[in-house]
Amino acid sequence: MERLDDLETFVAVVEKGSQAAAARHLRRPLQSLNRSLIALERAVGVELIKRTTRRSEPTEAGRMFYERIKPAVAEIIAARNEAANIRGEVSGPLKIGAPVLFASSYVAPIIGRFLKLYPNVEIELKAADDQVDLVADGLDMAVRIGESVDEQLTARRLQALRVVTCGTPAYLAEHGTPKHPDELGSHHCVLRAGGADKWPFRVGGKLQAVRVSGRFHSNSAAAIRAVAGEGIGLAQLPLWQIRELVEQGTLLIVLAEFETEGMPIQLVWPPTKAPLERMRRFADFLANGLKTELL
Q1: pLDDT score, position 87
Q2: How far apart are CA 96 and CA 76, in angstroms?
Q3: Which of 95, 118, 132, 244 is the most exposed place for a label (fewest CB within 10 A)?
């Protein structure tokens, strides 16, 4: 009967593209990994991996074998990890996604402290501003700023971010400081790509979406911040992204009395994925960390 380690090795080689990459992923010596592959091929009775000096690709039989065993191997590994969690151990890998700026400013430092607390946990952080497909990207969970576009995901609200409207002193001196959201129609605005041409405000106690327009659009928060800092137009951004510029006087906040309750920060994961103990521990740790740092 094939050992789980041999099957796990085979899956890793197929997915990583080489024995060296698979060995690094599994944290096993290359020689040990090669022995597992040989043992599996002997047990199955057919060549599964075609080996070259640089690449290791599955044969036709290997590809078919991979497609059949991958779900079962994943389930067995998950069951093994859950059993370890029942024993009170917090260990194993986590793949987490987060927006680029937020990942480097907040998520990564919190992950660093979490790894010190739990030395048997391994975390891979994927930073991307677009809301990626968690299942397709192999993510266990992801930090989302704003409402998630996928309502099928399980979500936990962590915190809310103050969102402000801002512009440079030079821009406001030339174009005037808006006193009401209705005045934004006569202003240039720096916008997020993807049709985000309406900004939310609370007017008279009611939420109101105000249409805005501008000559620059980007899916990068860093790019929006940079262009707004050049005085091209007004921008609407989470305060944490521009706090330093506001404190320096490079950007000025306008329409503060019309701000909404803020932009939610959520931690999301696939509904089909039962949270492991390490996922639950990290969710609590992240929530507490953000509560302390996002005052």
Answers
A1: 53
A2: 21
A3: 244
Tokens of 196: 């985000």
Which stretches of the chain score pLDDT less than 70?
1-2, 27, 53, 80-89, 148-151, 195-196, 272-274, 292-295
**Residue 185 confidence (pLDDT):** 92
Q: In this structure, are residues 92 and 80 in contact, taking their beta carbons and an 8 Å threshold?
A: no
Dihedral (C-alpha) 147, 151, 155, 158: value to the nearest 10 degrees? 10
Alpha-carbon dihedral sign for residues 20, 24, 27, 29: positive
Q: What is the pLDDT of residue 1?
A: 44
* SS3 (DSSP) at 128: coil
Residue ranges of alpha helices (H) inside the chain are: 4-16, 19-26, 30-44, 60-86, 100-102, 108-117, 169-175, 221-229, 239-248, 277-293
Give the torsion sign (CA, 135, 136, 140, 145): negative
Phi first, then psi, for residue 125 (nearest 5°) are: -110, 125
Query: How far is the C-alpha of 271 from the C-alpha of 75, rounded, in Å?
Result: 15
> Is 114 within 8 Å of 282 (Cβ atoms)?
yes
